[in-house]
């Protein structure tokens, strides 16, 4: 059974956040809120966590996993960014964007796109997610919590707990965080290519 954490959306309880972070370090797969919708997350480099996300969402090996980072300094450890791209991403973070960029050697090969050697990265604008990332001290490997055959992600923590009780280890409930996923911008070719229009404004990338 998944542990259930009722966390205040504006003033997350440090004890609860610490417990979730400890669970992640121990190999847990969690469902947690972001500034666009709920996501599944585990420790970077956790093959078990990666396999479980693929199983829950029925993903193939071409799926771009996302490294959810606390800040720009952390993000920069995992992707290669030139000056123009740096400025464009810096101006848009934190926010509801996922950026696809060439991966550095810090990113496990199993997380990279098999042909492009790229990875998705984002810095969320969500108090609870930021508190968890600060406590964890490293990115969360993540994927949108969108179940096979469904058009929209689940938005309620209690519903996620009810439906995924035996396939995730913990659920953070901080209230409804919406159903619109991030806007995805691919910078791996040097120019901005909008792959998916979502919660983030695309104007600056067009």
From TrEMBL:
Signal peptide per UniProt: none
- Annotated YrdC-like domain ranges read 14-200
MF term (GO), any: L-threonylcarbamoyladenylate synthase
So which domain of life are we looking at? Answer: Bacteria
Q: Which UniProt keywords apply?
A: Nucleotidyltransferase, Transferase
* Keyword Nucleotide-binding in record: no
Entry keyword Nucleotidyltransferase: yes
Q: Which residues form a coiled coil?
A: none
UniProt xrefs under InterPro entries: DHBP_synth_RibB-like_a/b_dom (IPR017945), Sua5-like_dom (IPR006070), SUA5_domain (IPR052532)
Q: What is this protein called?
A: L-threonylcarbamoyladenylate synthase
> What species does this protein belong to?
Streptomyces rochei
